[in-house]
Amino acid sequence: MTRIAFVGGGNMARSLIGGLLATGLAPADIRVAEPLAETRDKLGHDFGIATFAENRLAVADAEVIVLAVKPQAMPKVQAELRMAMQGQRPLVISIAAGVRLDQLERWLGNLPIVRCMPNTPALIGAGATGLCANGRVSPAQKALAQHIMDAAGLTRWIADESLMDTVTALSGSGPAYFFALVEALEDAAVAQGMPRDTARALAAQTCLGAGRMLVESGEDPAELRRRVTSPNGTTQAALESFAADDLPRVTARAVAAATRRGAELADALDKET
Ligand SMILES: NC(=O)C1=CN([C@@H]2O[C@H](COP(=O)(O)OP(=O)(O)OC[C@H]3O[C@@H](n4cnc5c(N)ncnc54)[C@H](O)[C@@H]3O)[C@@H](O)[C@H]2O)C=CC1
Ligand SMILES: O=C(O)[C@@H]1CCC=N1
Question: Which stretches make up the Pyrroline-5-carboxylate reductase dimerisation domain (predicted)?
Answer without folding.
Answer: 161-265
